[in-house]
From TrEMBL:
SUPFAM superfamilies linked: YjgF-like (SSF55298)
TM helices/strands, residue ranges: none
Listed Pfam families: YjgF_endoribonc
Record InterPro entries: Endoribo_LPSP/chorism_mut-like (IPR013813), RutC-like_sf (IPR035959)
PANTHER family: ENDORIBONUCLEASE L-PSP_CHORISMATE MUTASE-LIKE DOMAIN-CONTAINING PROTEIN (PTHR43760:SF1), ENDORIBONUCLEASE-RELATED (PTHR43760)
Domain Endoribonuclease L-PSP/chorismate mutase-like intervals: 6-143
Protein name, entry field: RidA family protein
Amino acid sequence: MSAVEDKLAQLGLTLPKTATPAGAYVPAVRSGNYVYTAGQLPLVEGTLPLTGKVGGEVTPEEAKELARTAALNALAAVKSVAGDLDRVARVVKVTGFVASAPDFTGQPGVINGASELLGEVLGDKGVHARSAVGVAVLPLDAPVEIEIQVELAD
């Protein structure tokens, strides 16, 4: 088991299987020393625990937890092409999408769930640039979607 997966275990988390794509794409692609993930939904064993708009059917606190789950799924996607999460030199960028009720403006707080998880698991290597974007709707009526870009050490 890798040091990163040991850290996940200390946090009471396990790396899930990589989610099966819902369209004509792959979960992650490596280009040189970089891995780019597709948008990862907060699927748990293939199912969304909650659906709907943040600030409507889904609370910001629930959405923040879903962002953590989506980030964990993104790490699984990285591992699927990198082979070992210990090869991650740093998380370069996180992009978070929040399906938002019309008056909801707390997208950064929701995406903190993903950012905080990456910091807990990867330490300084998890510090990253980020965008938190409110959108009208996401695939499968998911409340959040996360994609990450990481640099690998060779």
